């Protein structure tokens, strides 16, 4: 590069330097952020107090009912777990009257039997011996009776009669009737018929043919299912509010049935620290089987009148608070927060509203849905 070219290059570089500095010092500043006063206004809040307006015809079609909130007596409910147990007043057992061997059984668990029906047969050496003794005593008594008191002494006459009576009593104890005892061949030698003590259903049959059984052994249990017992447990404080004869309700598998308290145990269970309550109820259909678990509802008096609504009229809001819909003077339905005091079956006891307030008692969920569509504040704040 010659001297002239070097000079030209120097002039170009000097010009670039001068222009670049000017650009750096004169570039435009970014616009400042808009002031708070110039910011875009937030969306206008919904009118919390506007409520929802519905014509009487629309309310009728939707099944919405408005009624004044009036004090009413609402019994408190005690809820307790319960279990169906065998009705001990309506149950009977079949036990052998003497030691022997079971040679036949005629029923099994679940079979329905009638009182006096033979459910099994056993063979007993004692029975055979007793039958033989009766035959001897009966023959002697007949001989003495035929001779008459004119020939036989009074003592001998009385002894023969007493021995026959004793032998018959022993056989009656084995389950034979006087007719069977006195009819020759009516009862096979040594065989004892086991009979049902009452009408009912065979609940248990813990015996097998050929088994040696002794007195006191329960061979069959006959249960009367027409009345069921329910055993429930409550705290001592709850038991103090209960009394025999008090009405109750049983709930299980979507079914309900009325029941009544029959007795309260006198002692507190040392393990669970609870008091046993026995209830009973009609069970003609046999739906309440022993071992079934149920929920027991026991209404008890809880003082004076309170403000209560159907449980479906008290709804939860998005913030978890309880609320009901109240009709204003302008006819609009507005949500009002309330305090849920307790539940009482199909009713909810509340606080936070004045008595006489017109509230939605039916169709509250529909009102809530329509309110959400309309965009007004569902909190009612």
TrEMBL record:
Keyword check for Ribosomal protein: no
Keywords, in A-Z order: Transport
InterPro entries xrefs: Beta-barrel_RND_2, BSH_CzcB-like, MFP_Cation_Efflux, RND_pump_MFP
Bias kind Pro residues: ranges: 28-45
Residues covered by the CzcB-like barrel-sandwich hybrid domain: 93-224
Domain CusB-like beta-barrel: from-to ranges: 228-298
Keyword Hydrolase carried by entry: no
Region (Disordered): 21-49
Superkingdom classification of source: Bacteria
Family (UniProt): Belongs to the membrane fusion protein (MFP) (TC 8.A.1) family.
Protein name: Efflux RND transporter periplasmic adaptor subunit
Organism: Phaeospirillum tilakii
